[in-house]
Every structure is written in C-alpha cells, then in structure tokens.
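seq as requested:
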Amino acid sequence: MKQKIFSFFHIIVICALILSGCKEEQPQPDSNTLKKPDALMASSNPNLYTTIGSNVQDFTELKSGPTEATRLNMGAPWSDFDPTGFYLSPNTTMQISVQQLSGTTRPKILIGTYSRYAAKNNPQEFSLTTGTNNITADQYGGLVWVRFVTSGTPSSTVRITFVSGHVRTPVYIKNQTTSTDWANQLATYTTSPDVVLIGTRVYQVYSRARALDTQSQDNNYVLSKADQTMDVEDTFSGIDGSAPQHQVNIHQRILMTESDGTGWMAATHYRTRYVTAAASAAFTSTLGGVDGWGPWHELGHMHQQQAWKWSTLGEVTVNIYSLAVERAMGVTPSRLKRDNRWPAVSTYLANTSPTKDFNGSITNGDWIRLYMFHQLWLAYGDNFYKQLHKETRVELPVVSTDAEKMRYFMLKACTVSGKNLTNFFRKWGFLVNESVYTEIAALGLPQPTVEPSTLNE
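struct tokens:
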C-alpha cells in the first residue's frame, strides 16, 4: 500500500473534515532484547517486552477498562488487553494450555483487532479453562490478544502456553527493536497481514503493506510522539497520582489501528481508528506536527469527562486536549488562530439577543463553542482544567440531562477559577434555569479582573 503524505494545504482541508467525519463512535455488536526499554507501563503481561512472541507468557488480572473509565469519569474504556505477538489464520484452530498460578479466574483470548477490518469490527472472544483449550478462528482470523480483567478485586495470575496453530506477527517495541531486526521480522513473518508496534502509551496496528512502505522511517520517533500525546492529555486531565482517583488508567496504552472501513478517523470503546487514506497522520512522523491534529483529537475523545459533556459538546471539549498537545508539540500559531475564526467568535459574542443559545444552531458551532472553553484556558491556564478534572473525579456527580451537566460545569468553573462567571456565561448564551445564576451569586465570588469573553489570541 503506497503511503500518502499530505501537503499542508491538504491537511487544512482534512482537518476541517475531522469534526464532521470524526465521531465518537458507539461500539458495534457483533525479539530481540538489545537494551532496557522505557519504564514498563502497567500491563496484564508484566513481562511484555521480553516474552511477547514467546510460546510461554504469564498474565496478571487487572481492573477492567469500563471500571477504570468509571473511576476517571471517562466515556470510553481504554484498551484492556495485551498483544501476544501471534496471528491466527482464518478457519484455523490454535491449541493453548492454561496453568493457574494464583487465584481462580482466567483470561479471555481475543482473535482479531477492534476496528481493523470493516467485515470484523470486534474480535472473537473466548473464555479459557485450565488445561488444554482449542480455539478456532472464524473466516477472518486475526491478531491474538489476551484480556484478563475484573470489575472486582484482581486476584489471579496464569501461565499461557501457545502449543500449536499460531504464527508470529512482526512486533516493533519502542527503543528496543532495531531497524535491522524490524526488517528481518518483516521478511520472516509473512503470514500475518498486520503488524504491532508498542509504545509506552499506545499500541499501533496496521497493515504489513504499510509497514513495508514505511520501513525506513524512525518508528521510535513516531511512537514517542504518540506517547507524548497521551502523556500531555493525561497531565492536562490532572492525572498526577496525588490521590487514588488521580492515578493513571491501569490500562495505560490505547490502541491506534489502521482501518479498512469508511469514514475518516474515530474513537470508541477500547480503540481509536484511522482509515487507510488518513492513516499516515497517525503512523508517520507527521504525528508530531500540524498534521497530527486528527490523532490528537481521537485520543482526546478517550479523555473526555462525561459530567460536563452535554449533548452539543461531543466534538467540542475533545479539542481542549488537542490544543494542549498542539502547545506541547510547539506548533504555532495555534489552530484557532490559523483558521482565523476569532472574527466569527467576536460577532457571536457581540450579539446581545436574550434568545442567543450556546446550544442552538450556530454556523461552525463546534468550533465556535470550543472558543468558550479556550477563553477559560486563556484566563486561567492549564491548572483550571487540571482542577476541573480532579474535582469531577472526586465528586463523580450523578448527572444525565443537558441541564444537569451545564449546571455542574457552570458552578465548577466558578469555584475552580474563584470568580463569578455569570457575565461570561450570559455572553455565551447559556440559557439555563435562572436558579443556576442564583446559585452562582450565592457563592459570593468576586468578578473576574479581566472578563474572559474579551480574551483572544
């Protein structure tokens, strides 16, 4: 597959499509060790870097992805499974043996990668028993993953021996796999149509054809930029380990996969996906520059908190994380300034109609609404959002309607900033029950020294 590198002009057009073409999808039914790698991040396979691709691998039970998502008030669970380094061909039976090392529960085997192929959006899932297990792939086959999770207290470990039926897939480990080793793997493990690349914060899965086309690129750099994206978005979310609620997700990697499906890019349960035409933005060095906005955005979806994401904000609050990554990557001027939308924001704010509605029909509404959140950042910086995320995780408010979520956000924005933001919210057309503004007044907070709605870049 020929890799396509987009020009700056094309990327501007493509990024404009991200908000319409990207959506937070609902899930559909259906080695060589040359030097010690970066600090090993949490994994159900504690020896991931040294045993991946080996016939004997140990796994330790962890909290489930949905359980961690609830703790962090995030909508989409992260990738709560680990690669084995193996592939199972279509309609082929694999035999594995399971030994219980502690506890009483056992993992599941997944055959196939979430969203990799339109014909098989979700993997097959097999529960394991101790002793011998025979697992037969469907007509599609796929990469072999292990999911070992619980919603309760993790208590078990197992040893899995891969006996027969499986074949190796090329695996690249950041700062461990050399270019020579990678070339040898691609030349040797030719049965698997897909490859796996492992960073400290991501798993990347894409076609063997793409791996061959990009064989000369610096995979360490690409993975480091994906890892940096995750680290920046975690930091912006106040995930600093200062309390149990603020510990990093135990499943510290998120799957980024090439997809042969339709659309452009998307994020949903357990993964982010990038169609083949868009995949270069996620899997080449462009991830570290202006062209990386799309993947930053999709990984941002995996960080959005639900307590203050009402119905018009699905493609809005996601970009506070994109902007944070853009700043960390040193991309200037910011996208909001590059796209020259400030005049439209000024026009919107100058409208004094009492019926102006933040959630109403607004031309380029997703972008205009983003500026409201960006003005709060201009006024109060990263700490505003760090504290907002942290207090939300501590409180875990029970809110479901737009009105409840708007009220929660408005009151938290005031207490976190230490200012009465009534004028700001009225300027932006927050048409909530007047009792919310009464509650804000009752907080007794001072007016902002500088009205945030006057700020721009």
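The first strand starts at residue 23 and ends at 24.
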